[in-house]
Design brief:
This protein is mainly α. It folds into three domains: about 1-80, Rossmann fold, CATH 3.40.50; about 95-150, 5' to 3' exonuclease, C-terminal subdomain (DNA polymerase, domain 1); about 200-239. The chain contains ten helices and three strands. α5 (about 90-100) crosses α6 (about 110-120). The model has no long low-confidence stretch (mean pLDDT about 75). This is DNA excision repair protein ERCC-1. One of its GO terms (molecular function) is single-stranded DNA binding. InterPro entries: ERCC1-like_central_dom, ERCC1/RAD10/SWI10, Restrct_endonuc-II-like, RuvA_2-like.
Length: about 240
Amino acid sequence: MCSLRYHLLHPDYLYYRIRELQKVFKLRVILCHIDVEDVTKPLLEVTRTAMFHDCTLLCGWSLEECGRYLETIKVYENKPADSIREQIDTDYLSRLTRALTAVRHVNKTDVVTLGSTFTSLAGIMDASMEDLARCPGIGERKVKRLYDTFHEPFRRVSNRPSTVTIAEAFSKGKNEAKEALKDDGEKTEIEEGKSVASKAEKESSSNNVRSALDAAFAKYAERAGKRDRKGNPVRKENG
């Protein structure tokens, strides 16, 4: 037996205690007293130690509970396993009662009525709702419960859409990424075309302004009668 508080103070105690036992006993039980507030970390360590050394772990949240565990283990120490094993009925009526009373609202009296009417569990399962309703004491609610229990499928069909696999999701994401890159490329080409057109328009506008200025200066020079040696009109500089 150990407590979590003691385990926090002496974390190696449980390991050395189990090592002393070695493989002498077929059943080795660790009784752990939970006496701390935060049990997550210490209880995880104790559980790992128990699993690693093939031990059964019992946890008690009070000293009284731990005492009852020790008392019960001591009482059944030398008794066979059959003494603590659940008793299973072997006669047919008991097993039929055990099976049918698992259905809600069906009691032992109903089991006797159904068994005497249909003689076997197979006959009850194959009976229609009308046949079940003819049995005395079997009301509409019990008939529906029994019929649904025997005829509804074990595996229900889900109405949810089919699950997409990781490969399909990856492929879909890859295609979407390609489309996005393609759209981005087209947008980039359009923007570059607009930029080139705007630049050409600016250069054309600048050339038009320069040509207009040259024409104006030429006209002014003709009027003034001033030309250079090559016969080209000369611009008059201010100042």
